[in-house]
Specification:
The protein contains 9 helices and 17 strands. The chain is α+β, with helices and mostly antiparallel strands and 308 residues long. The chain has 2 domains: 106 residues, Phosphorylase Kinase, domain 1 (2-Layer Sandwich), CATH 3.30.200.20; 190 residues, D-amino Acid Aminotransferase, Chain A, domain 1 (2-Layer Sandwich). α1 runs parallel beside α9, α4 packs across α5 and α8 packs antiparallel against α9. The chain binds adenosine-5'-triphosphate (ATP) and magnesium ion. The site of adenosine-5'-triphosphate has 17 residues, from β2 and β6.
């Protein structure tokens, strides 16, 4: 599916690497939107480039996973508080209101959400050491400035989950890992603490749910925005295979190589293939059919392991 689409009732306003955003088509040109339609395409990005071709039905899988997590997290209990999210009201109760607004052409891959004042911080939580965290640790023994014990290997579990924020770069630029102190400078001490506490809390809850299903939630990224009442609200996508690294717990325990330990349910297959076949200059090469098929199969497997 390419974008933007002509959708009845909606006007296209923005396309990110993966999602296309629409506002109601009767909205005055400069008026702030109250709600938006977020459509997840099948586009896949790695190293900040959108690749060709897309992964069949990826947008539907991402949306299904996000909705599943939003619903679970919204409900408190067992000492956990409910996490407010950007889905338009009643979704959790299963009322058919918001779904009526979703055009057939994007059904299954779209959500109607409250337009929030987004925080410019990608709220990353890591429970395990890998990726850009591992790269920094190898050089300095830290991740986003947080000192870690010596002697950790790629893929190791951290003593406790850590909040490692990134500054959300403007379109086309790389997000930049930043320290907590820098986060405080950007959003203020109170908001920085709120983002950190919410992120660690959601990660811990989700990691436990994954564990019950034989999955390790190695790391993940959240985005938050404030709603009209100023409530910090979970937005964008949540705990999907695009925003998170999920590994098979059994493979992690028994694997003898980093690749075997970190058998992932996400686009790591794409990242690995690209890293081996592209020098990161110019346009990335087209993904081979078997990489596309393997990635699609992993996305589907994650959804069934989590939700069935
Ligand atoms: P970029 O926007 O830099 O391209 P991206 O590739 O992650 O980043 P997408 O995920 O494709 O972008 O697009 C989704 C966009 O919508 C993000 O910029 C995200 O911050 C924004 N967004 C998500 N939920 C909301 C919301 N409820 N209100 C306002 N903006 C939102
Ligand atoms: Mg995004």
């Amino acid at each position: 599916m390419s974008s933007p689409l002509d959708l009845p009732g909606w006007r296209h306003v923005y396309s990110g690497k993966v999602r296309d955003l629409y506002v109601p088509d009767d909205l005055e040109p400069d008026a702030p939107a109250e709600r938006m339609l977020v459509v997840a395409s099948d586009r896949v990005s790695a190293f900040d480039h959108v690749l060709e071709p897309g992964i069949p039905d990826k947008g539907v899988l991402l949306t299904t996973l996000s909705l599943w997590w939003f619903d679970r997290l919204a409900v408190g209990g067992d000492g956990a508080r409910g996490i407010p999210n950007h889905l338009v009201a009643d979704h959790v109760l299963g009322a058919d209101g918001p779904r009526e607004l979703i055009p057939d052409a994007v059904s299954g891959r779209a959500m109607v959400v409250k337009a929030l004042e987004m925080q410019p911080i990608e709220c990353v939580v890591r429970g395990y050491l890998t990726g850009s965290g591992w790269a920094e640790y190898k050089m300095d023994g830290t991740v986003c400035g947080i000192p870690l014990p010596a002697g950790l290997a790629n893929g190791d579990r951290l003593p406790e989950p850590i909040f490692t924020p990134a500054f959300k770069a403007p379109m086309g630029e790389h997000d930049e890992n930043i320290s907590f102190e820098r986060t405080v400078e950007i959003v203020g001490a109170e908001t920085a603490a709120e983002l950190r506490d919410l992120s660690l809390e959601i990660y811990t809850r989700a990691a436990r749910i994954g564990e019950e299903r034989g999955l390790i939630l190695a790391d993940t990224k959240f985005e938050f925005g404030r709603d009209e009442q100023g409530v910090m609200t979970l937005a964008d996508e949540v705990l999907t295979s695009d925003s998170s690294r999920y590994w098979d717990a059994e493979a992690w325990r028994t694997g003898t190589t980093p690749a075997a330990r970190m058998a992932s349910f996400d686009k790591q297959i794409v990242r690995d293939w690209l890293a081996a076949n592209w020098d990161k200059t110019g346009t990335p090469p087209e993904l081979p059919a078997e990489i596309v098929a393997q990635t699609a199969a992993r996305y589907r497997e994650l959804l069934s392991r989590l939700t069935s």
